[in-house]
Each structure stands twice: as C-alpha cells, then as structure tokens.
Design goal:
The complex is a heterodimer of chains A (about 300) and B (about 375). Chain A is an alpha/beta fold. Chain A has 10 helices and 14 strands. Chain A has helices spanning about 40-50, 90-100, 105-120, 135-145, 165-180, 190-200, 215-220, 240-245, 265-280, 295-300; strands at about 1-10, 15-25, 30-35, 55-60, 65, 75-80, 155, 185-190, 200-205, 210-215, 225-235, 250-255, 255-260, 285-290. Chain B is about 65% helix and about 5% strand. Chain B has helices at about 1-15, 20-40, 65-75, 85-95, 110-115, 130-150, 175-205, 205-210, 215-245, 255-280, 285-300, 310-315, 320-335, 340-365; strands spanning about 55-60, 80-85, 100-105, 125. In chain B, strands 2-1-3-4 form a 4-stranded mixed beta sheet, with helices on both faces. In chain B, helix 3 crosses helix 6 (about 130-150), helix 10 (about 255-280) runs antiparallel to helix 13 and helix 13 runs antiparallel to helix 14 (about 340-365). Chain B is elongated, with a radius of gyration of 28 Å. The chains are: A alpha/beta (about 300), B mainly alpha (about 375). Chains A and B meet through strand 6 and helix 2 of A and helix 1 and helix 8 of B.
C-alpha cells in the first residue's frame, strides 16, 4: 500500500532524515517510533506532501505523490501534531471546510461529517465553536477532520500529545475502529505503550535513520532477555550463586530486591525459587517484568527513548 | 471550485464573526471620516460663509487716523476684530489664543500723513505656528490701512470665486475626501490582518491540512484575494452609503469608474496582505513592520491631508504609493465628478501594484510547512 523509499532531507547543515525506507501493507498499522528530533515528523510530512524530499520517493500502490493537486493525495489523511482547526468556527463548519478541500459538499459532506463526528463522539457538540472545546475534544476533532474523504492511509503525527488519559483512550478506541475497518495507519509517537497497544509493526528511527523495522515479537526476540524475575527479600545476600544457574543471564540485588534476568521464564523461575528455598533465603513478594519497547530502544541505541 | 468557494466562505465568516475587525473596518472610518470632513469644510453648505480671521488691535494712536483704521477693519466681513491693550495682545498671541495682533503706535496718523520724516511703523505680533494665517491677515490689513489713510481709496477690483469641478453644480464635499481617505486607511489595516491571518494559519498547523489536500497554491491564495476584495467592496459601499445618507456625498462622476477603482483597490489590498505574509516570519514580527509601512502609505496617499497641499516634489514622488492612486481615483469619481475614462489609469495602476505584490508574495512565500 505505502512504500517509503530512501527519503533524505536536510536543512542547511542539519540532516533531518537520511535514507529512511519502509513499506506498509494494506490494513497494517505501523508505529514510527523515535525520540524527539529523530526524524519522525519530517518523514510523515514528506509522506503527506508537506515537504519535498531532497532524495527518495513515496509511493501509494505504486503511484508517486508529487505536486500540489496530485489525486493520489486523496488517498492520504493527515492528523497533524498541531490542532489544525479554526477555533472561531463551529466544529461542523470546520469539517465542511476540510471536506470541501477534497471537493466534498452538500448532502455527501453532511453524511461524512455526521459519520466522522459520530466516530469521535462529538455529534452533540457539532454546532459549538471549537474554541469552547477541551484539549481532548479538539484532538478528537483533529482526527475527524482527516477522515472525511475516507483515506486509505491515515498518518497520525503524535495525535495524543497533551491530552488527558480519558481522551487518549477515546482516541485509541477510534483508531482501533479504523484499524478494524481495514485502514492503513502510520502512527508516530515516543510513547512506547501507545505503540505496543496499537501497532502491528514498529519502525524505530534514530538520528534520521531506520534502525529497526520489525513486529513487536520480532523486536523482543532481539533482546538478550525475555523476562525479569523480581523478588523482594527479607535479607540481602550475594547473588553470585544464582548467576551460576543455566537459565540465568544476570542477577543483582539492590535494596533487598533481587532482580534476575532469565533466558526463559517458565523454566528459569522455578529453579531460582528452589535455589532460594534451599539456601534458606526468605522472600516477601515475587513479580515479573516483561521486555518493553523501552528496553528494545535502550538495547539498540544505548539511550532512553523519551530522554534522548 | 468547491474548495475555492469554501475557503472564501470561511474567510468571510471569520471576518464577520470578529466584532473588533468589523468595528475597525466599518465604524472607525465613519467616525474619523466625519471628524476630518467637518474640520476640512463639511458638506459644502458652508462654502459661501466667510471665514473670519481673529485680529487683535492695539490702538495707541488714539487719533482720527487710528480710529478710522480700526473701524475700517471692523467693517471687513472676513475679520473679527477685538480691541485690546498691548500687554493683553502680546499675552494672547503668546498663548496661541490669537494668531495675530497689530499695534498702531502713538502718532501713527501724523507720521503717516507727513511727506517728510520717518515712515510710521506698524508692529505685527504673530504666532509663529500659524504663520500662513498671519500672512493672509497681514495682506488683508494692508488694504484696510491704505483705504483708511485715504491713499488707496476704493480697491480697484472685486474678486468672484467660482468652484470648478467636472460636473456642473457639483461642489466640494469634504466628507467625500475624508470618508474615502479613512476607508483607505482602515482597508489597508485589513490588508495587514489578511497577511497576519495567513501567518497565524500556518502557526496553527492549518497549512499542513491545506498542503496535504489536493489543493493548489493558487486556489489558496486566490480565495484570499477574492474574499478580501469582497470585504473591501462592502466597506467602501457602507462608508460611502453612510456618507450619502448623512452628508449628501454623491458619486458625481462615473459609478462604473468608482466601482472599478474600489475593486482594484480591494485586490491591491489583498495582495498587499499576501506580501506581508510572505516577508513576515511570525505574526508578531510582521505586525509591527507592516503597521509602520501602512501608516506611511496612508500619510503619503493624501488620505489625512489632501495631496494638493503637499510640496510639488512630494506630489510627484507619492505617485509610487498605491494608496495615492486609490485616493485620487475615489476623489475623481466622487466630488470631482470625472467620467469613467479618468478611472482607467488609477484602476490599471492599482491592478499593477496588486500583480507586483502578488508575484513577490508567491516568490517569497515559504510554502513548505514546518
């Protein structure tokens, strides 16, 4: 459906992206993940036709996007990071304008506007001025504005920035509905939990380059650990003995908490617990920690995703 | 076309929802135009009323000659004479309460009648800030003195003033000029708002939505030009409509010519707004510079002070100012009563400026969304 091929863009001496390539299949949702300044927004802007790349191209089913009035643009819907709305106008007037940009007017416009407002749960506020909306409602309307022309590919540039958890969940519900309808979604974020919840595949961008392009499971397989066993001890002890167990990659004790990285949780955890019982080490609480995209990013770049 | 019309509708809706913009564009020119129109002569009904210059007289001669001079002055329709002491005369002129005082010295009559000896001296105390007024009154007084002293006798001629405009019977209505001038001023401020509005749209990310849709730059810019032109035409219609009802301002010349100038000025204003948007990086940065440029343009257009009062070189130099052509064009079609042929040149010049501003705007505008 969407092919991004060798995109390059520089602003003076600063290289924003350098050879970004990936493909997205029909109905697939990919997460474009990376820290601030990694090149996510530049990539999305080029796909949406807002920026002309220095090199590379974007294809939708083999057709290149170039020029202001290229009809291929009708197949793309952009949810920009900014709240790109007229506060002075009612929600419905905003949507009438944005529908008209795609030559949708009259009864057809009224129909698609009703659907879009219904999807994002703003039907009852249709006639209210956008300036009176909460941040979360504006975010939802921002999403609705990109759906009016029924695009095949939806580009979502950090669509949950600055919203409360309730609105975030509402937006996620909307996106899951769109995903279920077979829309192709390209979702940029630096929130790992969002990508984990929504995306079939993750493209990690760092310093303007793609450093990983995998399914979630595939990315986790690249990690040296599959799970971590966390045990709160009554008394601290030297964990050297545990490290000699075959399933254990690494073990350490900090503040009476034993942290054991295991190659396989189901075989390794019983052995560790048996070893502790045999040694008379009493413990108060046991928990496990699954690998996350944060771990993946840390492993790949040596840096934390949000703090980079 | 659907997008084009929707963008125009959006611009008009946002403009008319903005109470401040409506007041500034429709009410302010009427209020200020009324003031300037009144000050500069009103609707022409006071044309034949004499303008009476206030003159203070200090008669230290106290003889028949001095008395004759003063009574001659008092009989003059164009003078408002008040007898005062020398100290009071100097005090009133110094404080700006009078532009001129004339002191007739003691022994003036005798000295004036004598053929030998020193000539008598008349002292004029003048307010230097009102030099032109003082000179005019001094000229009038000279005639009075000559008559009073019996040397000039009757003035050898009388003057008749005939107001000349292109249309017979049309008289100068100062409101026509002042309303046109103030409309031009506030319409140019509207042009600034057009430019700032575009920069705000970009700042709010709306350009991303426009740029991601299959919309040409020309549709986007063209819709702005058309919506601004419609607003300008409405402003001029309301302002001149009010002037017609309240002060009898008529389009004495060609209505078609007047409409053409209004439309061309509207397009010029819109492209001036686009030009501002193209050179300004941020709305805040663009605002200060464009207000200064607009005020200069208004000042040089003759909107505040009619351009015929400018020095000759300035009258020629200000022809590079687009608003000057609009001002002259509106004057020509309103109170001067000129035919439509006289509207052709101002219309073409305004359209030329519109093209120049538009081309510069398109060339300089940063189209790529950040």
């Amino acid at each position: 459906m969407l092919s991004v091929i060798g995109l390059k863009k520089a602003y003076g001496n600063i290289t924003a992206i350098n050879g970004v390539s990936f493909d997205v299949g029909k109905g697939e949702t990919i997460g474009l993940l990376g820290p601030n300044g990694a090149g996510k927004t530049t990539t999305v802007s080029i796909i949406a036709g807002l920026i002309v790349p220095d090199a590379g191209q974007v294809l939708i089913d083999g057709s290149a996007i170039s020029g202001d009035t290229n009809p291929v643009k009708r197949r793309i819907g952009l949810v920009p990071q900014d709240l790109a709305l007229y506060d002075e106008l009612p929600a419905v007037a905003n949507l009438e304008l944005f529908a008209a940009l795609y030559s949708i007017s009259g009864a057809r416009a009224a129909g698609v506007i009703d659907q879009a407002l219904g999807l994002v749960g703003l039907t009852e506020r249709a006639k209210d001025r956008v300036g009176t909306f909460s941040g979360g409602m504006k975010r939802r309307l921002n999403l609705a504005a990109a759906l009016l022309h029924d695009p095949d590919v939806l580009l979502l540039d950090e669509p949950t920035v600055g919203v409360d958890p309730q609105s975030r969940n509402a937006i996620f519900d909307n996106l899951e509905t769109l995903k279920a309808r077979g829309k192709t979604l390209v979702y940029t974020t630096h929130y790992m939990e969002e990508a984990e919840r929504l995306c079939d595949r993750i493209v990690i961008v760092d310093h303007g380059q793609v450093i990983a392009n995998e399914t979630l499971a595939g990315l986790y397989r690249q990690l040296p650990v599959s799970n971590t066993l966390l045990i709160d001890l009554e008394c601290a002890f030297d964990p050297v003995g545990i490290q000699e167990l075959p399933e254990v990659i690494k073990a350490e004790v900090q503040n009476n908490r034993l942290s054991v990285s295991l190659k396989d949780l189901s075989t390794g955890a019983p052995r560790v617990l048996a070893w502790l019982a045999a040694g008379g080490h009493r413990f108060e609480n046991i928990s496990t920690e699954a690998p996350s995209l944060e771990n993946v990013f840390l492993t790949m770049t040596g840096r934390s995703l949000r703090d980079s | 076309m659907i997008a084009f019309l929707a963008l125009i509708r959006k611009d008009l809706r946002i403009f008319f929802q903005d109470r401040r913009a409506v007041i500034m564009s429709f009410v302010a020119p009427i209020l200020i135009g009324t003031f300037f129109g009144y000050v500069f002569g009103g609707d022409g009904s006071r044309y034949n009323e004499p303008v009476r210059a206030k003159v203070l007289v200090v008669d230290q001669d106290n003889g028949p000659a001095g008395a004759a001079i003063v009574s001659g002055m008092e009989a003059e329709k164009t003078l408002e004479v008040r007898r005062v002491s020398l100290d009071e005369a100097q005090d009133l002129v110094r404080k700006g309460k009078a532009s001129l005082a004339v002191a007739i010295p003691a022994g003036f009559g005798q000295q004036a009648m004598s053929v030998i000896g020193e000539r008598p001296k008349l002292t004029f105390y003048v307010d230097p800030s009102r030099a032109m007024e003082s000179k005019m009154v001094q000229g009038m007084l000279t005639g009075q003195f000559l008559r009073a002293m019996g040397r000039g006798g009757r003035m050898p001629f009388e003057t008749i003033e005939v107001p000349l405009t292109a249309k017979r019977g049309a008289i100068y209505n100062a409101y026509a000029h002042s309303y046109g001038g103030m409309a031009i001023q506030f319409i140019l401020f509207l042009g600034i708002d057009v430019g700032i509005g575009m920069l705000l749209d970009r700042q709010r990310g709306l350009w991303k939505r426009f740029a991601s849709s299959p919309l040409s730059k020309w549709t986007l810019l063209g819709s702005r030009v058309v919506s601004a032109t419609i607003i300008v035409m409405l402003i001029l219609a309301v302002v001149f409509g009010f002037a017609r009802i309240a002060f009898g301002v008529k389009i004495e010349g060609s209505l078609i010519g007047f409409t053409g100038i209004c439309a061309a000025f509207g397009m010029m204003t819109a492209s001036y707004g686009l030009f501002i948007a193209s050179i300004g990086k941020t709305p805040q940065g663009a605002r200060g510079l464009s207000i200064l440029a607009t005020l200069l343009m208004v000042m040089l257009s003759g909107a505040w002070i009619p351009s015929f009062l400018f020095p000759k070189w300035l009258q020629d130099a200000t022809k590079v100012v687009p608003a000057r052509w609009a001002m002259d064009g509106l004057d020509g079609m309103s109170w001067r009563g000129l035919p439509w042929t006289e509207a052709v040149l101002p219309t073409l010049v305004l359209l030329g400026f519109a093209c120049v501003f538009g081309v510069i705007a398109v060339a300089r505008f940063r189209w790529e969304a950040e």
